[in-house]
Amino acid sequence: QVHLVESGGGLVQAGDSLRLSCATSERTFASTAMGWFRQAPGKEREFVTSINWNGGHTLEADSVKGRFTISRDNSKNTVYLQMNSLKPEDTAVYYCSARSETNRWMVSRFPEEYAYWGQGTQVTVSS
After folding, report:
1. Residue 98 and residue 32: Cα distance in Å, rounded?
2. In whole angstroms, what is the distance from residue 97 CA to residue 67 CA?
3. How many Cβ atoms from other residues are within 10 Å of residue 36's Cβ?
4. pLDDT tens-digit map of 87-123
5. What residues pair up with 69 in beta bridges, in sequence order?
6. What is the dihedral angle through the alpha carbons of 19, 20, 26, 28, rounded to the nearest 10 degrees?
7. In terms of Cα–Cα distance, which of 35, 117, 26 is closest to 79?
8. 64-81 average pLDDT score
9. Residue 125: band (very low, low, confident or very high) from pLDDT cuts 50, 70, 90
10. Can you state the percent helix, strand and coil of the chain, rounding each to 5?
11. Would the CA dihedral through 17, 48, 78, 118 be positive or negative?
C-alpha cells in the first residue's frame, strides 16, 4: 500500500505563511505527478495545485496564483506547499495526492485522476 502523510497545518492569522509537507512511500514517486487539494466546511473538494514528475511544470488554481507554490524533492520522496499571504478563504483541510497510472507523470486538476490520498492536515486562517 502507498502511504502519504501531510504535516505543517495549523492556526494562523491572515497574511501569515505556512509550509505543508507530504511524505510518501510511493515507490515510483520520482516519475509521478503530485497534487494538493483542499476541502472547506460545506464545500466539495477543490483543486489547489499540481506538479509534474520532475518539477518542470506546475498548474495552479486561479485562487492561489501568486500566493502558493508547490515544489518537490525526489531524493526525499516529499512534496511541499508553500502558502503565503494566507486569507480566511484558504481555511480548509489540505490533502496531498499522487496520480494514477495513466499519464502519471503529468499535472492534472481532476481528483478522479489521482489514486492515493493522505489523511489531510487542517489549515485555519483567522481574520
Report:
1. 7
2. 20
3. 26
4. 999 999 999 999 998 899 999 999 999 999 999 999 9
5. 82
6. -40
7. 35
8. 96
9. very high
10. 5, 45, 45
11. positive
Rounded to whole angstroms, the Cα distance separating 66 from 45 reads: 21
Please provide the size of the chain in residues.
127
- What is the H or E stretch that residue 21 is in? strand 18-24
What whole-number distance in Å separates Cα of residue 106 and Cα of residue 104? 6
59-68 confidence digits (pLDDT tens) = 999 999 999 9
Q: Quickly state the pLDDT bin for 2 (edges 50, 70, 90).
A: confident
What is the DSSP secondary structure assignment for residue 54, as one 8-state letter? T
Query: What cell was used for 52?
Result: 509534474
Reading the block at residue 43, the C-alpha cell is 464545500
Nearest to residue 123, comparing CAs of 48, 12, 37, 46? 12
Classify residue 44 as left (phi > 0), alpha (psi -120 to 50) or beta: beta
Cell of 120: 489531510
